[in-house]
Amino acid sequence: MAELIRGVDVASYQPSSYEVKGLDFVFVKATEATGYVNPKLAAQAARGRDSGLVVGFYHFLRKGNPEAQAAYFLKRAGARANEILACDWESAPDGSTPSNDEKDRFIRECVRLAPRHRVILYCNRDYWLNRERSNYAGDGLWIADPSAPEGHPRISHPWLFHQYSISGGMDRNLGNFPTRAALQAWAKGSEPASTGGIGGGAMALTADQTYAAVWKTDKVPTLADASDAQANPTWQPVSVLRDVWASTRDTQARVRALEGEVAALRAQLDAMAASLTQLDVSGALGALQAAINATTITLSAGGGNTP
Question: Of 80, 153, 180, 268, which one's alpha carbon is 20 to 30 angstroms from that of 200?
């Protein structure tokens, strides 16, 4: 396997002087909801910067008002130019879970408020496979799958970072970039994101990844007559294709039904035409004329005997 860059993510549970040897990046927890700031935020970020690491910050998303949470996160994280922002989407200690829509709204608000920063999504494999509905991860996916070998998360979607282990009290991650410089270039916006294949940006997409990137990216404007057009303004291309096909199939069924009705009416008209053809119209008129003539003769004969 081609070598990928390595990093960690830290929160208040980890020391401010975490080990940086062999690392290329660090994600620091900044905030949670709209009332919590990591007390070690500044020191942990400084540790990464002073060590030359690529630094990112994440917000632990809570249920409710994602736009306010995004503003709170950006105000307190203190991210500098070219540093990465991430949405941590998972269940809270109380069991509550932000919805798929709230996750999307949080990321989009971060993109709107901080357009010069890369904004990505962190979630575990179960969330991505079973709770994710829009296939939207901002600028890329940071996937947690510690049960998979490092660099081989069990998803088909392209990924940027893989949280593969918790070792020595630290969350361990791989970045899908060949070098720290490649990650820095991507964070600056001068290079495209990694394709998701092992080995970084130069590796070609697999068939499954190509399919997911083309057909399952939530970018297509919702169909105008869709019932959820306001709540869900963008669709995946595959959803649009399925909806159009369903409408086409329904229209075809209606057309076939109308064709059957037209054929039945045509058959009835043909039967009526055949019945009319069988009538001896001229013979009927002749018989009627003969009856009229006979009546006239009878009346004439009777008229001569009138007293």
Answer: 80
CATH at residue 134: 3.20.20.80
Look at residue 140 and tell me if it is in a domain.
Answer: yes
Q: Looking at the predicted structure, is the pLDDT value of residue 204 above 50?
A: no
Residue 249 within a domain = no
Query: What is residue 167's predicted lDDT score, i.e. its pLDDT?
Result: 83
Read off the DSSP letter of residue 3: -
Between 228 and 271, residue with greater pLDDT? 271
Mean pLDDT of 22-32: 99
Residue 238 belongs to a domain: no
**Structure-block tokens of residue 187:** 């964070």
Indicate the burial class of 8 (C-beta count within 10 angstroms; 0-12, 13-18, 19 or more). buried
DSSP reduced 3-state for 154 = coil
51 assigned to some structural domain: yes
Q: Please, are residues 201 and 192 in contact by the beta-carbon 8 Å criterion?
A: yes
Helices then strands, counting H and E runs in the chain, come out as 8, 11
State how many domains the chain has: 1
